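Researcher: We plan to redesign the surface later, but first we want a full-length starting point. Tokens attached.
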């Protein structure tokens, strides 16, 4: 998992990343597989996507990963898996501990009542599409869904009493004040324990607490008179250390408030124009298991172009990427997985329950990142269908219940007939004038038509153009400048930026589709518009080589500053 800072000093944490035993089982039912008889005839990197490696390229099926782990003693341990694609079953010494559905989110598997010493961990991973087992992943999505343990693994010794989570919310920016919520657990009611909270190495609170239950939460408020605020221009971060009894958690946070008012998004009461991209966490050589240096290079390219915004399309992002965005001052739209769902899914409790669980995991993981300034759900789903509205109400309501401190949104591609826009704080519209259907010259009119349709009812809400773009094949440049050339893409994006921010001033943000080219599924309905099996609308290609549009966007974004 390798966060950008150490999360525990006192707690024993074992990094399980490395080379694990591996077996590709193929079209086998996980319910009937004889785990003890699996022949592990290969080795595989964790984190990694097996189907991004030459031997298993493009294969889907059931696979098994195995390694030995060391339980320090017989007290509870917690295994963290930070993203397994996209269904898995975890077994320890042959005992079935837990199943998990859904990639891209971090989840815990508790190990209780196990004796001290080494134990054999087996993770069965299924990358096939199976609605019953894994309702959030569908083959028709417009990105390739790689398989494997993509975001690493850790084993934590919890001991007899532990901290489950620490959440930090900015209560006030003047004077800076934070609210810290500590959830805790124990094998038996622990009684008297010491609680210490330190910020940036300075102890600010120390007290004795009497915990009379197995688990619970404590809330403390702290004023930090000298603390600097976080903003895209000054991404100041602070470190909170929580020590409760024998356990500790360190978390990094920023002090900032996000509000929406008069068509604007404000950070610390200052309006901000969000300029940036949609980014798929994908790379031809690594699948979804993006190494940190590639993330760093992505962030550097975004900063170089003058961006302050990334939409994490279309699923929760790696914690290390969020760490980098915190440091770089890049605002993030954190998005739960979803792509063009209809009433068939949105009225199905099985789908909604899986969405709710995925949202829980996304929010738990991204909560303390100041860069995450908003959250979204259900990209381009049927928000124009009244039958889908209850699903939108449930999921957006759940986001608000979990965290009232961030605005919520969803990307709509039905701006003229949408029936759920009253449920959001920020309007977000995906549109492709100049690419699907019309010509570049039509872009201003088509954008104005969208604004005119939204404004009568939602005039006070900020509006983000959450997708707009054109395909360009890396290296294809000629005098004709037709679709698929780098020059067509550059011209289209220049036109969009000029119209949104120079000729008009209605939108609060732009997320260009997209940062990097990414592989897509053969099953996507539009595959004939996906040369080479890639969505080629990146301003850099899948290996991050810049196209002409990179410089065009860079010039245009810098000119707005
Ligand atoms: C949609 C969708 C994106 C991508 C895009 C495209 O707007 O949200 O994921 O598929 O279209 O390239 O056509």
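Model: Full-length starting sequence:
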């Amino acid at each position: 998992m390798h966060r950008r800072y150490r999360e525990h000093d006192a707690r024993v944490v074992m990094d399980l990343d490395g080379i694990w035993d591996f077996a590709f089982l193929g079209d086998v039912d996980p319910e009937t597989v004889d785990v003890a008889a699996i022949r592990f005839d290969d080795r595989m990197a964790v984190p990694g996507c097996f189907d991004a490696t030459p031997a298993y390229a493009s294969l889907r099926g059931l696979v098994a990963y195995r390694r030995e782990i060391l339980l320090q003693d017989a007290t509870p341990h917690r295994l963290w898996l930070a993203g397994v694609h996209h269904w898995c079953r975890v077994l320890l010494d042959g005992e079935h501990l837990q199943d998990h559905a859904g990639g891209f989110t971090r989840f815990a598997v508790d190990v209780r009542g196990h004796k001290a010493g080494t134990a054999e961990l087996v993770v069965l991973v299924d990358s096939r599409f199976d609605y019953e087992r894994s309702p959030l992943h569908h083959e028709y999505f417009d990105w390739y869904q790689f398989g494997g343990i993509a975001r690493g693994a850790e084993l934590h010794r919890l001991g007899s009493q532990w901290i489950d989570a620490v959440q930090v919310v900015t209560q006030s920016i003047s004077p800076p004040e934070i609210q810290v919520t500590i959830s805790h657990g124990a094998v038996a009611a622990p009684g008297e324990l010491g609680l210490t909270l330190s910020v940036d190495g300075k102890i600010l609170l120390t007290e004795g607490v009497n915990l009379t239950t197995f688990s619970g939460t404590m809330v403390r408020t702290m004023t930090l008179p000298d603390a600097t605020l976080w903003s895209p221009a000054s991404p100041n971060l602070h470190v909170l250390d929580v020590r409760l009894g024998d356990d500790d958690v360190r978390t990094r946070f920023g002090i900032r408030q996000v509000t929406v008012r008069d068509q604007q998004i404000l950070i610390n009461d200052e309006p901000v124009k969000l300029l940036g991209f949609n980014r798929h966490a994908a790379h031809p050589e690594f699948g979804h298991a993006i190494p940190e240096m590639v993330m760093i290079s992505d962030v550097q390219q975004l900063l170089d172009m003058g961006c302050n915004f990334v939409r994490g399309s279309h699923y929760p992002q790696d914690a290390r990427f969020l760490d980098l965005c915190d440091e770089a001052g890049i605002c993030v739209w954190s998005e739960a997985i979803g792509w063009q769902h209809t009433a068939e899914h949105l009225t199905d409790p099985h789908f909604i329950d899986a969405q709710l669980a995925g949202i829980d995991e996304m929010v738990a993981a991204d909560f303390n990142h100041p860069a995450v300034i908003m959250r979204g759900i259900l990209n381009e789903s049927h928000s124009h269908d009244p039958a889908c509205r209850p699903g939108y109400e449930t999921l957006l309501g759940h986001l608000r219940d979990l965290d009232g401190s961030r605005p919520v949104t969803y990307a709509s591609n039905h701006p003229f007939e949408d029936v759920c826009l009253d449920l959001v704080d920020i309007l977000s519209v995906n549109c492709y004038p100049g690419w699907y259907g019309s010509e570049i010259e039509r872009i201003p009119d088509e954008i104005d038509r969208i604004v005119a349709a939204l404004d009568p009812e939602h005039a006070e809400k900020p509006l983000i153009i959450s997708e707009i773009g054109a395909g360009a094949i890396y290296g294809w440049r000629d005098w004709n400048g037709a679709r698929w050339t780098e020059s067509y893409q550059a011209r289209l994006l220049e036109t969009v930026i000029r119209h949104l921010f120079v000729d008009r001033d209605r939108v609060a943000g732009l997320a260009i589709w997209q940062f990097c080219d990414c592989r897509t599924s053969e099953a996507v309905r539009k595959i004939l518009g996906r040369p080479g099996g890639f969505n080629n609308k990146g301003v850099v290609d899948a290996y991050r080589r810049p196209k002409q549009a990179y410089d065009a966007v860079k010039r245009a974004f810098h000119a707005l500053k």
